[in-house]
Design goal:
The protein has about 425 residues and is an alpha+beta fold. Among the domains are: about 5-140, no CATH class; about 285-425, 2-Layer Sandwich (Heat Shock Protein 90), CATH 3.30.565. It has helices spanning about 5-15, 15-40, 45-60, 75-95, 100-105, 110-115, 120-135, 145-250, 250-280, 290-305, 320-345, 390-400, and strands at about 310-315, 350-355, 360-365, 405-410, 415-420. It has a five-stranded mixed sheet with strand order 1-2-3-5-4, with helices on one face. The longest helix is centred in the middle third of the chain and has 104 residues, at about 145-250. It is rod-shaped. The two termini are about 35 Å apart. The relative contact order is 0.06.
């Protein structure tokens, strides 16, 4: 992320805030001590100033803050308060001996903010304001009421100004801490949300994988049933007819009829075998998108059965995961096969709808229809050998975490809707 020149300038000075405010008391104490010695101050003043400098240095050497507004960690709370009182006492001694030290003692406001916490800071401000008022009145003497009144007035003014600044500084610090906590909580919530989304994506991936595996197993069972009930039965019938023709012997008419029946059964079984192979490996999807594959299936079905099929696609057609496209394509094939077997329809409509979170295939016909049980299927479902195939269709769709809805009434046609998750390839 790029930063502006103004942000760079602010960062530059923010990094220098702590060194500047840390060094300022030493600079002012050194200047005031020099003025005091030049004005004739003695060794006592020098010793008091050195004690104050040593106390400040001892605190700073133990300090590990990164910003002036951070809480001090050099001393425990109680010892920090004692150190502050000692520092205020030394400051008072300095201004009583030399009012010029007033330029230094006002830095006690910084120390009250730094060493004390909460409302104790205001007590520290009151004490420091007293030393500042002493320096402003020239350190006395306070022999009469007027001098004491002047000292009290200056003390109150200093308390008011410094206390107000301390109050607003404390409010600002609380606001800053509150915003920092909110930002921390927001960051944590964002991290939790990302983690949850990642877990959900992994879970959905596992569910789709499990559904695909379950769908493959179910499809194998369905194809086993179809082979048993169609191809195997057809081959058995062919054998029966050929055996009958063989027994007919020298009755050419009867033998020819048996052979013709066997040929018809062979053609029917071949058709069923081809349909089963297409169901296992949908050839129309090999080199085409799902809408094109559905159109191809519909065209073939119209050519075979002579019933017009209208195919429409809505939404933004996009490649989906193969198992989802296979499920929808096979549903279309099965639905058209049901129409051919049972509906006696004059028109069929297929609509493929791409939505944001799901893809839906709707198949409608104007055939004879049937009575349903709560939209779940026919009231009297047929078996796999001669039935509607709706059970297998439902298992296929639900095997990829989708759902199948059926609407039909006698003499009112049938509508089948299959919806699957819209998971991109």
């Amino acid at each position: 992320m790029t930063t502006s020149r103004r942000e760079e300038w602010l960062d530059f000075w923010e990094r220098r805030e702590l060194p500047a405010l840390t060094g300022l008391p030493y600079l002012l104490l050194t200047l005031c001590t020099g003025f005091d010695q030049f004005a004739g101050g003695g060794l006592v003043d020098l010793a008091i100033a050195a004690s104050a400098a040593a106390l400040m240095a001892g605190i700073d050497l133990r300090d590990r803050r990164s910003s002036w507004t951070d809480p001090q960690t050099a001393l425990p709370t109680g010892w920090a308060a004692v150190a502050f009182l000692v520092l205020v006492g030394l400051s008072a001694a300095l201004v009583l001996r030399q009012p010029l030290f007033g330029f230094y003692v006002f830095t006690g406001y910084f120390w009250s903010w730094r060493m004390l916490e909460g409302r104790a800071r205001f007590v520290g401000v009151v004490l420091v304001a007293g030393t500042v008022a002493i320096s402003q009145t020239g350190a006395g003497p306070y022999r009469d009421a007027a001098a004491l009144a002047g000292l009290a007035a200056l003390w109150l003014v200093n308390v008011g100004v410094a206390g107000t600044l301390t109050w607003f500084g404390w409010v600002g610090e609380e606001q800053h801490d509150r915003r920092a906590r909110e930002l921390t909580e927001l960051t944590r919530a964002h991290a939790e949300l990302e983690r949850a989304m990642s877990e959900n994506a992994e879970l959905q991936q596992r569910l789709v994988t499990q559904a695909r595996e379950a769908g493959v197993a179910e499809e194998r069972r369905r194809m086993a049933r179809e082979i048993h009930d169609t191809i195997a039965q057809g081959l058995a019938g062919i054998v029966t007819q050929l055996q009958a023709a063989q027994r007919a012997g020298e009755q050419p008419a009867s033998a020819a009829a048996r052979v013709s029946a066997a040929i018809d059964l062979a053609r029917s079984s071949l058709s069923e075998a081809r349909r089963s192979v297409q169901a296992l490996a949908p050839e129309p999807l090999a080199g085409a998108r799902l809408p094109d594959a559905v159109q191809e299936v519909a065209d073939r079905w119209t050519t075979l059965h002579g019933v017009p099929v209208t195919v429409a696609t809505t939404g933004n057609a996009r490649p989906m995961r193969p198992e989802l496209e296979v499920a929808l394509l096979r549903t279309a094939q099965e639905a058209l096969a049901n129409v051919a077997k049972h509906a006696h329809a004059n028109r069929v409509g297929l609509t493929l709808s791409y939505m944001e979170d799901q893809v839906t295939l709707d198949v409608r016909d104007d055939g004879v229809g049937f009575a349903t049980v709560n939209g779940g299927g026919p009231m009297r479902p047929h078996d796999d050998g001669g039935g509607f195939g709706l059970t297998a269709m439902r298992q296929r769709v639900e095997g990829v975490a989708g759902r199948l809805a059926i609407e039909s009434e006698p003499d009112s046609g049938t509508a089948i809707s299959a919806s699957v998750p819209a998971i991109s390839a």
